Amino acid sequence: MAEAMTQRVNQLTTNGSRSSSPFVDFDRASWARLGESIALPLTADELDQIRSFGDEVDLDEVRQVYLPLSRLLNLHVQEGGRLYRAYRTFLGGQPARTPFVIGIAGSVSVGKSTTARLLRTLLARWPHHPRVELITTDGFLYPNAELERRGLMARKGFPESYDRRALLRFVTEVKGGKDVVRAPVYSHLVYDIVPEESVLVRRPDILLLEGLNVLQPAQPSSTGRRSGLAVSDFIDFSVYVDAATDDVRRWYISRFLRLRETAFRDPASYFRRYADLDGPAAVARAEQLWDEINGPNLEHNIAPTRGRATLVLSKGRDHAVTRVRLRKL
């Protein structure tokens, strides 16, 4: 099965090799054929637990888009294992293999969280790498008090709102093979870091790292020089979830209105003050948040990293993936 999928990808890549693009493009039907011989290891009830609020992914899309992607990632992990064994033989002994890191990037409201959770579930059901963990970079945002001190609350989610040193240290320790690595926890309910709470990462086979800016290159320092390393330097395979900006804006506003009727009504919610807005006022506030924060962040920081991804999932107006773009080998 691995050989058949590899041959089919290679054939499609060869057929598109006359293009000067570093990517090969698949429409949804062509991509789906790459996974047609694979049984779907997911039920409708499980998908309901995985799917993000407002994301319309169904079992057909899992079968046609995410199952072939999980197989492709499985091939990459297996080939990485073969390369590791060759290195170990060549070097005459080497420490144990380190986790395979997959980065998942994209805008707010584009569906990257659902993509990450789906891949975590699907990848863990392949026999070669049962230990799969998912960490979101939200946990590496500065606490609200620190953002307030720095004047960055209105730029939450922008690169400068993250403790990039802590995030880089986390990823380097994971790739360095450390037995236990801690990641801080973020609460979307209270819109802040949870003090004294952390997630322990214990040498998984695969680590999924999901966040707005995981594909960014090293940032310039105050002197104008770039620092030596970025989180993206430690990512073995990367996925960018893409859609037209107007569509993402519409999805963001729709999600805001639905949250206003649900999660925002929780007394503990940071956004409780929005729950009592009438319809026009709620739309106006959602549009303002997008136009002043999330839209500019997408335009200036997130979208420019799309070309750095190994694979791009492109969505249409209905939130469904319509095209897959894979970087050529």
How would you summarize what this structure contains?
By secondary structure, the protein is α/β, with parallel strands linked by helices.
Topology (SSEs and partners):
Elements: H1 2-15, E1 23-27, H2 28-33, H3 44-50, H4 59-91, E2 100-106, H5 112-124, E3 132-136, H6 144-150, H7 164-175, E4 181-187, E5 192-201, E6 206-210, E7 237-242, H8 245-260, H9 279-302, E8 311-315, E9 321-327
Parallel strand pairs: 2-6, 2-7, 3-6, 7-8
Antiparallel strand pairs: 1-9, 4-5, 8-9
Structural features, described:
With 329 residues, the protein is an alpha/beta fold. It has one domain: P-loop containing nucleotide triphosphate hydrolases (Rossmann fold). 40% of the residues lie in helices and 17% in strands. The protein contains nine helices and nine strands. A seven-stranded mixed sheet has the order 1-9-8-7-2-6-3. A hairpin with a 4-residue loop joins β4 and β5 (192-201). α4 crosses α5 (112-124) and α8 (245-260) crosses α9. It is globular, with a radius of gyration of 20 Å. Residues 13-17 have low confidence and may be disordered.
